[in-house]
Amino acid sequence: MIQQPVTVPYELFVDGSPGPKSKKGWAGWGIALMAGNSPVYEACGVAAERISTNAIELEALIQGIAYLMRLDLPAVIPIWVDSQYVATTMSGLPLLGRNGFQDPNGNPLPNADRLRMLYDLWYRMGMHEKCVIRKIQGHKGFAGNERADQLSKRAAYKGEIWYRNNPTVFNNEIQTNDPDEED
What we know:
Elements: E1 10-17, E2 28-35, E3 38-46, H1 53-69, E4 77-81, H2 84-91, H3 93-98, H4 112-124, E5 131-135, H5 143-158, E6 162-165
Parallel strand pairs: 1-4, 4-5
Antiparallel strand pairs: 1-2, 2-3, 3-6
Helix pairs in contact: 1-4
């Protein structure tokens, strides 16, 4: 289990990017765990297939929650999303789960696979007790949101997949394959 100092308030920012409009490229996600304006942990990755904007926004949240599950959280961590779809979806997740992620006609909802994963992480794995979803307006200068946006675009437009810890803020020894680090 990764230990965190309890004196610094943490916030997680997640974002997704659908990538280039052409059929080439990826949809990318980015997450940034912040202590104030300092990044503690950053990661970005791509979806295995071309997916919608809403799907990659959900994927970013899944990746962020999955990361937080590995931590010994000292307090409830806010997870900031700039997607209205994700914010609305998370507020309605219990009802969606009770309905089997189907519409009134019994058809699967869009992104049902990711909705099931979120439901399991959030409720069955107990993350609803350790995190709270908050909506933030994107592209308004919030450091964590801007960083998550940059990371998602790096993944979507360049195919980058990596993670990095900031050892000056977060003292542990996880290896990194960060492309910005010099050997």
